Amino acid sequence: MLVRRGISYYKLSYAATCILQNPGCKFYATNKWVSSDPTFPTDGAILPGGGACVAALQTAVGREPDAIIGKPNQALLQTILSTHSLDPSRTCMVGDRLSTDIEFGRRGGLYTLLVMTGCTSYEEKAAIADEFQRPDFFVEDVNVLNLLAATST
Questions:
Q1: What InterPro entries does this protein's entry cite (predicted)?
Q2: What is the pLDDT of residues 74-105, one digit of tens each?
Q3: Interacting residues of 82 by C-beta distance below 8 A, sequence separation 6+
Q4: Which residue from 77, 99, 96 is spatially nearest to 88, judged by alpha carbons?
């Protein structure tokens, strides 16, 4: 299940119908837990996130997803690393959500950079209890990366 801004009741209904009426139909989700991905960041509006949409579909079909394939799933990371011949010790995961982006990188042995212009508040950052959600670095805005890149060449 891929969540985009165009998610609708019709699309959720169609997904549920496909799963229920096709015995071999697999139910793959990017996020399982509403708590890890409850909202989708936008300017001035709150939209249901991947976890919230998966929860709605899971409730409609009465079963768990067959597999969770999005962040922080490590199978996804291993595929990315091997496909692009990346060295985890020289790779940095940049993201705005502690429970998906930062945990994804930390569990995979990557450096992690939290961007404060997205989902995570300063209060949440200060109260991190889970070591896998503690970023190595943080920046106020992703544009800082552009400045660093421009000055490093």
A1: HAD-like_sf (IPR036412), HAD_sf (IPR023214)
A2: 999 999 999 999 999 999 999 998 988 999 99
A3: none
A4: 77
